[in-house]
């Protein structure tokens, strides 16, 4: 019986040591498990993460849509302004004479002016000749009057 009691005591001691070892390992595992639970509490669930991503993408898509609409409106406004300016420029160009028309006008104006000056010059020459003849007649008459007045004295 003594051997059996010693054997049971030794097995009991081994069981106690194994139990202590197991309890120590269990404490470590329990601590690790608590750490994992704490980390898990800080992490969002897959559903929460997907909801967050969908919200961010939706907000981004809405924002991009609004910016795109604003750009389209600005583009339309600029295109309308450019079109109006093009029409205004076309109307202004239609009112202006071409270079050839302007040159023809100047040539006509100069030609008319030259013709008028030539006519005036011819009239002046004619008047000068007439005046010269009249002056000659007056000189002759004056000369005769002088001669007659000398004879009278």
Reconstruct the topology from this structure.
Elements: H1 2-42, H2 46-95, H3 99-152
Could you estimate the helical fraction of the residues in percent? Answer: over 70%
Structural class: mainly alpha
Tell me the radius of gyration.
63 Å
The residue ranges in which pLDDT falls below 50 over 5 or more consecutive positions are: none
Shape: rod-shaped
Order of SSEs? HHH
Number of strands: 0
Largest beta sheet, briefly?
none
3D structure, described in words:
- It is a single chain.
- The protein is mostly helical.
- The protein has helices spanning 2-42, 46-95, 99-152.
- 0% of the residues are buried.
- The protein has three helices and no strands.
What's the short story on this structure?
The chain is mainly alpha-helical and 153 residues long. It has helices spanning 2-42, 46-95, 99-152.
Quickly list its features.
mainly alpha
